[in-house]
Write a structure and sequence with these properties.
Number of domains: 2
Structural class: alpha+beta
Strand order of the largest sheet: 15-19-16-18-17-20
Order of helices and strands: HHEEEEEEEEEEEEEEHEEEEEHE
Number of helices: 4
Number of strands: 20
Amino acid sequence: MELLQNINDPLRMLCSFVFSANKKIMVAIMRSTKTNAMEAIMKKFMGIATAAVFGLGIFTTSAKAETIVTTDVLNVRENPTTESQVVGKLLDGYKVNVLHTENGWSKVKLNSGKEAFISADYTKDTYYVTANVLNVRAGANTDSEIIGKLKQDDVIETTHQVQNDWIQFEYNGKTAYVHVPYLTGKAPVKVQPAVKVEKTTKVQDTAKAVEATKAREVAETQAKAKAQEATKAREAAEAQAEAKAQEATKAREAAEAQAEAKAQAAAEAQAEAKAGEAAKAREAAKAEAAAEAQAAAKAQEAAKAREAAKAQEAAEAREAAKAQEAAEAREAAKAQEAAKARETAKAQKPATQQPVAKETETSAPSSSRELRVVATAYTADPLENGYKAGDQVKSALGHNLTANPNMKLIAVDPSVIPLGSKVWVEGYGVAIAGDTGGAIKGNKIDVLMPDKGTSSNWGRKTVTVKVLN
């Protein structure tokens, strides 16, 4: 169809020339014969020739549009996708050689002979009417309403694709359709009409044919010149597109270099920040090590202080033990003297006098300093006395209370009851004032109990205390 389209105009001109020549010959024959038979033959020949001429116009036309770029710069891609590689650029107004269009992508042939793809959304197609009168219809079929008419060589511009030999375009603000077989993509070449001569001589017909040939040659020369101009314009557009593409590439490379520089600066800043954090971590580690060393030194000093306190407690315990031994010795001497005195008294008493009942351990001695105190029970439990589980609880005088939980011992305020004194406690009996306590001030004492049950039974109460020595 494309080949027939290309030869359509020359054939039309040739047939027109043949038709004109034959018409003149037949008219001459008719004038000479003046017969009805010849007139009928002439009319039949004219009908066949007319049908042949117009038939060539109808059945050989195949519309291939002239496609033009409608955007500033249009990417030429290797494949029909937006992710495909860009292989070139086309500028606004560039005429494209479209091979076919499908799914919104046009396959084109570049000047280099290479085939590629462009988006059909950024192109428009130009058609030229080949029929003398072409109906413009409201729908894509011959039954649709005729909303206008186009004449030969009228121009149609559209962005739509051909469907079923109909093309959609905008006509006076309305959506319209025309039949594609009556369109062409080639612009018409205007040829000066041949001058009509009434003479019918063969010489004049030959001259007319020569003039038509010259006109055709002129038209062909003009068409070639226009084609050369179009080629030059296309080459200039391609060069401009290539220059723009190079500029875009340079701009992209500059942007990439700038982005790389920013990334490098960010990496350096991050490395510097990490180095600063590492330095801070080292300083923190040093500070922590110094704090640990200081804490260890303090712990060592505390241990030394505890050792010194223990040594002092041991010394005080030894002194208290000596004092207790001396007190016990004095008590023994006093008891011995008292026994001697009682023996002497017995010897001197009348026989009828009854003996005095033996003094119990809990009875109050007759001669001593007496005071009322608040007595609180406690045990030798390490946790109850501020020690760790398993430690040995010792009194201020060095008595091992853990080993001797049944020992009679009270904790006193040394300013009220001297440490190491022998005392009598109401309900408790004779005991040694052998311990002290931070909470024991004034008339307060703590009474040592052998177990928690006995301690709970005693609790806290006010009792009488007598200092025996």
